[in-house]
Write a structure and sequence with these properties.
DUF4935; DUF4935 domain-containing protein; coiled coil; 5 strands
């Protein structure tokens, strides 16, 4: 299930295409999108498009993540799914009250339409999120990733900081840097992106002096904040 960095990079170098390294929140946001105003529902269609591009005989994109992300996704899936189901029920109760009020005002019964809970949205989105993780190349945690992650924590380097260790996030980012460095030393020329919506720890991708800037420049990589943005990079709609 988990693959050494060299093996992943060998496969990518043999069939070059843009590389997207996915953080945990990016994969779970497919489930969060319908009920969080800060996440566009376009994340769902972007996930579907990227899975399709990834699955071609000649890949249009390489989706990559790591063992830590897999474990975090597994640990948090039920909580995120429950949030979507809870919010869906809350919306249904509010819609029912509104329709009842309209019936009273107009003196007749109106059709309610589809109830979201009957459409099994959470199940469909869970499957999509699971598929996004499943088709990704999952890098095995190396001792180097863990050691470098601890160095980040000691030096308060993003995604760590004073008062927040974020050791797992550091381990994920170190795995990304390892993949990026290995690919560039092999002459890989396509785009390499780290994809996360976790701006609290990584900073905003568009802000001047982003804390990741120097490390990203060193491997000619970029940080993007959503699957929708990542898809635009892959399709050449943004530089």
């Amino acid at each position: 299930m988990f693959i050494e960095v060299d093996e992943v990079c060998t496969a990518i170098a043999a069939k070059p295409a843009p590389v997207l390294f996915l953080d945990t929140c990016t994969i779970l946001d497919v489930l969060r999108a319908p009920c969080r105003e800060t996440i566009g529902v376009e994340e769902i269609s972007a996930a579907m498009a990227l899975i399709k591009l990834n699955g071609k005989p000649t890949p249009g994109v390489w989706l990559v993540t790591n063992e830590t992300v897999h474990d975090e996704w597994t640990a948090n899936l039920d909580t995120v799914k429950t949030e979507l189901e809870r919010e869906s029920k809350k919306i249904e109760r509010l819609r029912s009250r509104l329709v009842d009020a309209v019936d009273i005002v107009y003196g007749r019964t109106h059709e309610v339409g589809h109830r979201i809970e009957h459409l099994k949205l959470s199940e469909h989105l869970e499957n999509l999120s699971r598929q996004l993780l499943s088709v990704s190349q999952k890098v095995k945690i190396a001792d180097l990733h863990s050691l470098n992650a601890m160095n980040r924590v000691r030096k308060y380097m993003a995604p760590a900081g004073r008062g927040k260790q974020e050791a797992k996030d550091c381990e994920i980012f170190e795995a990304f840097l390892d993949v990026g460095r290995t690919l560039r030393t092999r002459g890989f020329a396509d785009s390499i992106c780290f994809v996360t919506a976790n701006t609290d720890d990584y900073g905003k991708p568009t802000e001047p002096k982003n804390p990741l800037e120097a490390e990203l420049l060193a491997i000619d990589a970029r940080y993007v904040g959503s699957l929708t943005w990542a898809l635009a990079v892959v399709e050449g709609r943004v530089n």
